[in-house]
């Protein structure tokens, strides 16, 4: 079984289209949340994401954009974008956002969990080995996929040693892959990165493929029509910063 793992699309239709066109063959799509918020095409992105896959975990922006989370929790730029998104979303899409389950969701037997933030708290950011310690210790599952930080990579432990998982790339313009072999007796927290608003200094869209026969995670980056996404954000009257940050991958 091969799962395409997507997270943090953030209403970026150009990025989602590039990822779906570039993704290698897969059987299922697991979506780790923040389908909407920040970008200019929330309705189109929800339609495409739902066509592509049925396993979803809700993100904080998904909750904010359908009224399940107060906008006071957000910084001013994120709050303005969430308010704009609420206004343009169709009633049907708002209803759909409201029913996405909180993580962890177990889409593939007793080994695998999917969450948006941390396994222990859906809103927590797992940025460092220190953040990863408690969730990896307490996880009921060995292989855990998370998003929320928009940083591709992750963390692993065999019980006495801890590792950072950092994909290595050579280009900043081409599509690239980095394969990670999953070892027995190691527990993993893996972040596929953000489809629509990467923050690891690489502007290319990020995603991952999990293969439970080969026992591999392949991290992928793919260029997309960023200028189109930026122009759509400006035309929509969303904050400029949401357009400029796409170029920097920050
Ligand atoms: Zn996000």
β-strand percent reads 15-25%
Tally the helices: what do you get?
Answer: 8
How many individual β-strands?
Answer: 11
State the CATH superfamily name: Metallo-dependent phosphatases
Mean pLDDT: 96
CATH structural architecture: 4-Layer Sandwich
**What would the principal axes of the Cα set say about the shape?**
globular
Low-confidence region ranges:
none
What class, by secondary structure content? alpha/beta
Helix content: 25-40%
Q: Give the distance, in angstroms, between the N- and C-terminal Cα atoms.
A: 33 Å
Number of individual domains: 1
CATH topology grouping: Purple Acid Phosphatase, chain A, domain 2
Q: Give the strand line-up of the largest sheet.
A: 3-2-1-10-11-8
Question: Which labels suit this protein?
Answer:
250 residues, six-stranded mixed β-sheet, binds zinc ion, alpha/beta, Purple Acid Phosphatase, chain A, domain 2, 30% helix
């Amino acid at each position: 079984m091969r799962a395409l793992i997507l997270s943090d699309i953030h209403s970026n239709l150009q990025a989602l289209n590039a990822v779906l066109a570039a993704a290698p063959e897969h059987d299922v799509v697991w979506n780790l949340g923040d389908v909407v918020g920040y970008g200019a095409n929330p309705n189109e992105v929800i339609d495409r994401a739902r066509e592509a896959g049925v396993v979803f975990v809700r993100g904080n922006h998904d909750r904010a954009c359908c009224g399940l989370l107060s906008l006071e929790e957000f910084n001013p730029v994120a709050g303005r974008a969430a308010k704009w998104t609420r206004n343009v979303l169709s009633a049907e899409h708002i209803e759909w956002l409201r029913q996405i389950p909180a993580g962890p969701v177990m889409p593939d037997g007793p080994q695998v969990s999917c969450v948006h933030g941390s396994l222990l708290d859906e809103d927590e950011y797992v940025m460092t080995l220190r953040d990863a310690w408690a969730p990896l210790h307490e996880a009921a599952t060995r292989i855990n996929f998370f998003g929320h930080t928009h940083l591709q990579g992750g963390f692993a432990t065999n019980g006495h040693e801890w590792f950072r998982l950092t994909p290595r790339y050579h280009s900043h313009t081409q599509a690239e892959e980095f394969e990670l072999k999953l070892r027995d007796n190691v527990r993993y927290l893996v972040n596929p990165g953000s489809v629509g608003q990467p923050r690891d200094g690489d502007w290319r869209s990020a995603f991952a493929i999990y293969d439970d026969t080969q026992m591999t995670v392949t991290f992928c980056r793919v260029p997309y029509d960023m200028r189109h996404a930026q122009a759509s954000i400006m035309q929509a009257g969303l904050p400029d910063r949401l357009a400029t940050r796409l170029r920097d991958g920050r």
